[in-house]
């Protein structure tokens, strides 16, 4: 079973690339982030015509997450996180699909830091940890997949100096991510690439893609029951180089059974 995460950076702008990726790689489950569309204008029919059931949590022009499943529709369990009722950002969607608990996550960027946006990022990570602990306690195969906007370690970035002041690399962001791992979640891509040097994002600016000046911010965290079934974890890097591509590359895990 292949479960992927893909920050599509706008379904309206990238729909041909999304459908192309689905057709060529046929993931069993795909979690999308930054769909950047309202619930009413999400291109559900195009995705269904490609053979995927889909649920989504949209927001006009910003954010937005979705979960796709080949040949069936995910059973939605939760949209949004508890803790801040006034938070209207569409950043979290959770479902049961194909015997696996899946969450599609678009964590706040947090820039500029310090400031209210960075404070919101850290509060959001605390709220995610609370929900993650509830899922973990159920002892089900679970995957928290998405764009975490956290560069976990120095070997997850092309240049530590270039990103040193960015919210993605601040000690507080990294500590919040490490707390999730300490709670018992497995960073799937790191487990398969312990030396680092694997990127999932390349900025559109500064010639980042041709220079391979990227970093790793798209993560798939596995519960113990999912980690026991882990076969592989990789990045579909080639899709980043296509015309009008997202600035992220699809990232995926393969599970047994």
From TrEMBL:
The active site is at 106, 147 (proton donor/acceptor), 248 (proton acceptor). The record marks 218 as: Important for catalytic activity. It comes from Sphingobium terrigena. The record marks 149 as: Transition state stabilizer. This is Exodeoxyribonuclease III. Gene3D superfamilies: Endonuclease/exonuclease/phosphatase (3.60.10.10). The keyword Hydrolase applies. It is an enzyme of class 3 (hydrolase). The lineage of its organism: Bacteria, Pseudomonadati, Pseudomonadota, Alphaproteobacteria, Sphingomonadales. Mg(2+) binds at residues 7, 34, 147, 149, 247-248. The gene is xth. PANTHER family: EXODEOXYRIBONUCLEASE III (PTHR43250). One of its GO terms (molecular function) is double-stranded DNA 3'-5' DNA exonuclease activity. Belongs to the DNA repair enzymes AP/ExoA family. Its EC number is 3.1.11.2. Keywords: Hydrolase, Magnesium, Manganese, Metal-binding. One of its GO terms (biological process) is DNA repair. It comes from the Bacteria. Its cofactor is Mg(2+); Mn(2+). InterPro entries: AP_endonuc_1, Endo/exonu/phosph_ase_sf, Endo/exonuclease/phosphatase, ExoIII-like. CDD domains: ExoIII-like_AP-endo (cd09086). Pfam families: Exo_endo_phos (PF03372). Probably binds two magnesium or manganese ions per subunit. The record marks 248 as: Interaction with DNA substrate. Residues 4-248 form the Endonuclease/exonuclease/phosphatase domain.
